[in-house]
Design goal:
mainly alpha, 434 Repressor (Amino-terminal Domain), two-stranded antiparallel sheet, single chain, 2 strands
Length: 72
């Protein structure tokens, strides 16, 4: 899985600063989520993002299948 915060922020023409301010999450969390797709938002952060931007968790987190898994 990976977070799609950078895509969400960029697609709305926002800065990370504005994302942080609008959601009310901590500055460090906002920048970490934006810069590190391997970081997952905690439930309260996910709630703040979804509520602020009227999106669903699937807009914030994406599941990427493991390419090494053999699907028979």
């Amino acid at each position: 899985m990976r977070n799609r915060v950078k895509e969400l922020v960029d697609s709305r023409g926002l800065t990370v600063y504005r994302f942080w301010q609008e959601t009310g999450i901590s500055r460090n969390t906002a920048y970490e989520l934006y810069n590190n797709p391997d970081r997952y938002p905690m439930a309260d952060v996910m709630e703040a993002i979804c509520r602020t931007y009227k999106v669903t968790p699937s807009d914030v987190i994406e599941w990427i299948p493991d390419e090494d898994v053999n699907h028979e």
